[in-house]
Design goal:
By secondary structure, the protein is α/β, with parallel strands linked by helices. It has 21 helices and 14 strands. It starts with 6 loop residues before the first helix and ends with a helix.
Length: about 475
């Protein structure tokens, strides 16, 4: 059984997964996203600055004005810029939330943060990020980019140009008109997830006050907020707790003016759990097909290829993406089946639903083929949420043996949390893997107990082969929740 979420969180997850599938999901990251990595929030950033002024960040709520007071007193923003450089120059490891957001097929990231954690996470996932730090960056496009990161308040690499104090915020719509225009357009065309913004974060209010998207063009966006606890906090009394909760209720209602719906969590630690569930459900719409065949056993060759062709086409028609490493003897049938479905209705299905990753044939970068193939397998399987295993044999020293590569892919899938479904009816390694699972159900079916009987049916060599594709589809639908 999966994690049980509240109806509101469940509805958000379903909507955001759908937007991911349609390429319409975006992220807006605030300081809270980076705080778990050791970076400061606004209060911590300006604590010493406030003390210089004889003020306290615990008392002052408009921290952007505090920054302005410091600039007024010093007649310079150099102190603030130096503070940014000190606080954000250190190297930090991205959080679990950063890593998940970078793995998801999100192409648009907006942030008010000065750190480099979003782009670092994207790079770790072999993604090419086009970073927009200043207005001039908006008119250039980085070749082969697959994500754009808009750092609308600047970057640690250029602290002197960072947006920090009230006069800069007030003039932002003039000095950074391109960013305002780009964000306004994205808010119309994409579904945003605001993450890392606290109830008192000054950035959110200033950003939203400059954006007036007409209601008729407004999408529903989402914002993670920690639910104000009913339990008394610190030295407050019952009246203080009630006031705090009432204030949040008004804040939540006010966000609706901008089309932003609050997703309330009890603790900030719940957010990576929700993101993990989004990733899991999205990946379960991507099916990795593992298999190879020098021979087809009890299957006639053409019958086997027709089956693989029909299975691949059926997956595309059911809205799945298919990942395949061009396995010997079945790879062509996977491709042909998927493409037949796609080209029959190009307005309904997309070439993006077929992801091919042919294996490298020569050593490179000081790595031998075995090492390269293992890395390739890990990346391919990492794209998927469910793995199917078909046939699985190869020619070795003049004889047919079960394919060790298919077993390795099975092991990688299990290690990375990918649901595995061997079609034992196809024989060879697929049958060997199915039998192993059935011999130790406690180990292999703990997460999905109902799957044991399905694997057994698919391993029955006397089963009707004509019904396998539909049976697989019904299992995949159930696995996807």
């Amino acid at each position: 059984m999966g994690i049980q979420f509240s109806p509101e969180i469940e509805a958000f997850i379903k909507t955001y997964v759908k937007d991911l599938e349609e390429g319409a999901a975006a992220v807006f990251a605030g300081a809270g996203l980076s705080r778990t990595c050791g970076f400061v929030n606004w209060s911590d950033l300006l604590r010493e600055i406030a003390e210089e002024l004889g003020l306290s960040v615990e008392v002052e709520h408009d921290l952007i004005s505090v920054a302005q007071y410091h600039v007024n007193k010093k007649n310079s923003a150099t102190g603030l810029a130096r503070k940014i450089l000190e606080e954000f120059s250190e190297q930090a490891e991205p959080s679990e939330a950063h890593k998940i957001l970078a793995r998801l097929p999100i192409r648009t990231y907006w942030t008010t943060n000065y750190d480099t954690l979003i782009e670092d996470s994207l790079k770790e996932n072999y993604r090419v990020a086009d970073i927009k730090r200043k207005t001039d960056d908006l008119i250039t496009t980085r070749p082969k980019r697959d994500a754009v990161v808009y750092k609308m308040h600047g970057d640690v690499d250029s602290p002197g140009a960072a947006v920090l104090y009230k006069a800069q915020y007030e003039q932002y719509y003039k000095t950074h008109e391109g960013f305002v225009t780009a964000l306004s357009g994205d808010l119309i065309s994409k579904t945003f997830l605001f993450i890392g913004f606290s109830f008192t974060d000054p950035n959110l209010d200033y950003i939203l006050s400059r954006l007036h998207v007409p209601e008729m063009h407004r999408r529903t966006h989402y914002c993670f907020l920690r639910k104000e606890p009913a339990m008394l906090q610190g030295k407050e009394d019952e009246a203080g707790a009630t006031y705090r909760q009432r204030r949040q209720e008004h804040h939540i209602r006010d966000l609706l003016r901008f089309g932003i719906q609050a997703v309330l969590v009890d603790n900030y630690e719940d957010i990576p759990i929700i993101l993990k569930e989004i990733e899991s459900r999205f990946r379960k719409k991507t099916i990795f097909i593992s298999g190879s065949a020098e021979e087809y056993g009890t299957w006639d060759k053409q019958e086997a290829l027709n089956f693989v062709h029909i299975l691949s086409a059926s997956l595309v028609k059911a809205g799945y993406r298919v990942v395949n490493g061009f396995g010997w003897g079945i790879g062509s049938a996977v491709i042909n089946g998927a493409l037949d479905a796609i080209y029959a209705k190009p307005d309904k299905y997309s070439e993006d639903q077929l992801i091919m990753r042919p294996f490298p044939q020569h050593p490179s970068n000081g790595k031998d083929l075995a090492e390269l193939w293992k890395e390739y397998r890990q990346r391919m399987i990492g794209l998927s949420g469910i793995a199917l295993f078909l046939f699985g044999n190869k020619l070795n020293e003049g004889g047919i043996v079960n394919a060790g590569g298919v077993r390795q892919e099975f092991q990688i899938a299990q290690e990375t949390g990918v649901a595995v479904l061997p079609l034992g009816i196809t024989g060879f390694m697929a049958k060997e893997l199915a039998d192993e699972m059935l011999q130790d159900p406690g180990k292999h079916f703990a997460q999905y107990p109902w799957l044991e009987s399905e694997v057994a049916k698919l391993a029955d060599l006397s089963a009707d082969r004509a019904e396998i594709a539909q049976k697989v589809l019904s299992i995949l639908k159930k696995l996807g929740g």
